Amino acid sequence: MTEPNTPTLLFLGSPRRNGNTETLLRHVGQGIEEAGGTWELIRLPELDIHPCIGCGNCEKKGTCILDDAMPSLYPRIMAADRIVIGSPIYFYGLTAQTKLFIDRCQTLWSRKYILKERRNNPEALGYLVSTAASRGDRLFEGAILTARYGFDAMDLSYGGELLARGLEHRKAARENPDLLDQARSFGRKIQSRDQGMKKGSKAS
């Protein structure tokens, strides 16, 4: 296990500042603080992250040849006890910025499955926070699947998700007190590692 004050990493994949996803992530962070933890928001769209080129170097050496922001993130990902990915839904999936980040975790997948390197904190968990304007029944299925397999590459078990649909304008989340309460509760449960979170939390 890592130190108890290791911050929860909140990876924000929305290209829009102060939108619904960021609002919920920040309230998740408030819940983490209420439960005695710390957190750090990392804005993926503002990082220099290149697309995976499928060269296979990570399968042989466990390292990525691309010189960008990801190599500095890998050790932080592996040291974290809790990671949250936040993304709005674009065309029934995660944003391009979020998917780019997850694709580049192929390096971590290679370390885990080919080079047999595992993290030192095996109880670490990954969570998803996702928002959408529409209300389709299967709206979040693609995002959840991608997030789950991304977390698996990071050697994280899946802890659950907070999903909010029907947020049709930029301030919709901040104008919904019940949803903000759900986000803070989600954060408190993340910090306390409540195993009941495995079933997730869904907001309509």
From TrEMBL:
Signal peptide (residue range): none
Keyword Ion transport found: no
Key words of the record: Flavoprotein, FMN
Top-level division of the source organism's lineage: Bacteria
Domain NADPH-dependent FMN reductase-like: 9-114
MF annotations from Gene Ontology: oxidoreductase activity
InterPro entries: Flavoprotein-like_sf, FMN_Rdtase-like_dom, ISF_SsuE-like
Any Pfam family hit: FMN_red
Family matches, as PANTHER family: IRON-SULFUR FLAVOPROTEIN (PTHR43278:SF2), NAD(P)H-DEPENDENT FMN-CONTAINING OXIDOREDUCTASE YWQN-RELATED (PTHR43278)
Entry protein name: FMN reductase
Organism in which the protein naturally occurs: Desulfolithobacter dissulfuricans
